Amino acid sequence: MNDKYKRIAVMSALPLMLLFLSAIALTFQSCKGKSKNDNLTAATDSLSDDALMDTVQRRTFLYFWEGAEPNSGLAPERYHVDGVYPENDANVVTSGGSGFGIMAILAGIDRGYVTREEGRARMERIVSFLEKADRFHGAYPHWWYGDTGKVKPFGQKDNGGDLVETAFLIQGLLAVHQYYVNGNEKEKALAQRIDRIWRDVDWNWYRKGGQNVLYWHWSPTYGWEMNFPVHGYNECMIMYILAAASPTHGVPAAVYHDGWAQNGAIVSPHKVEGIELHLRYQGTEAGPLFWAQYSFLGLDPVGLKDEYCPSYFHEMRNLTLVNRAYCIRNPKHYKGFGPDCWGLTASYSVDGYAAHSPNEQDDKGVISPTAALSSIVYTPEYSMQVMRHLYGMGDKVFGPFGFYDAFSETDNWYPQRYLAIDQGPIAVMIENYRTGLLWNLFMSHPDVQAGLTKLGFNTNKQDVRQK
């Protein structure tokens, strides 16, 4: 910071000098006992909402800009400040997290964090990598080695196409396409290259022999042995919408209705924490918060509805409110949980990695900043309350690329580590709350609109957001 100091004229009159010294002494005494955190909290309280959001968004953007793997330009799966990587995977890049990251970069370009030329050059590097990297019937794996583009197995049998992570990546790429499609000659050329990647994804292949359901994985060595047909509701809704939207390998609407919605069984009205939910959440009554975020980084939930859900915005808002209410009730009496510190989702945990959810079995006392901050489009006032509180905690939770992935006050556990798939939604959803940029770009793609129409979605924007 470039602090400006006023000059103090030295006064020759002794009485005034004594008065001045007395004031200094009183100020010193009044400041005694104040901690660094007290001063930081006061400074945080004085920031406007927009200034605070910009600080958080800009710092998080740096994960995908300065922290990118140098050859591919894509997002590293993880970044550890201490440089310690137990699995030696610092050079491993992630497809889904990179999809989120390129949307964060788009927002950064639009805000002037980098120039439009710099941004286009980075996108060209990314697309050049994706054109040559391992693909499996057009679908990308969960991980690659960033220096070679060869698949890094996510698990022994998960060494091929990952259709869900591919959908997250394509969601970002279609937003990039729309950003450049009407630009200058170089930008239009980039958009055309992205269009070819989009058209090459063979969504139909992942129906496993023409079934009316999409399968998550296929491996060139293990085939369909992962055996994971995807049913709703969870984070995978965007996969079904893109599969229907494809102009080259589009699946029939029955795949969505029979597979994702299970012929209407996805509808299951119930209450959690006294809050109404309309959908059936796979394996739980209310899922982790990434279920309310990953599909909706580009897909605008405002006014979005179909025959199974009267308002996806209000459904996701209520899922967020369930998560918050659970943390406030805090049945396991964890330290720090409350109205200004809530948010359970998949993240690093005190024992490895876990999908923290609003129930006592899946609640491990870990707060993941991405959970509340990426919910800002649904619960702006409550999410800003968390943002201010966390920012006031200082460098214990805030580092070079924004808020660290997770922490636990109960366990005094504050790892200085990041995960791409958690950082991306923070920057993207802050931008969507501020301007709707990524929503507007993705939703403007004609193929996306055709896919939504094909599946019977309505996008009535008069469904005004409630704050």
TrEMBL record:
Claim: Chaperone is one of the keywords in the record:
no
Q: Which Pfam families match?
A: Glycoamylase
Q: Which UniProt keywords apply?
A: Signal
Q: Where is the signal peptide?
A: 1-25
Q: Does the keyword Signal apply?
A: yes
Domain Glycoamylase-like: start-end pairs: 227-446
Listed name of the protein: Glucoamylase family protein
This protein's species is Bacteroides vicugnae
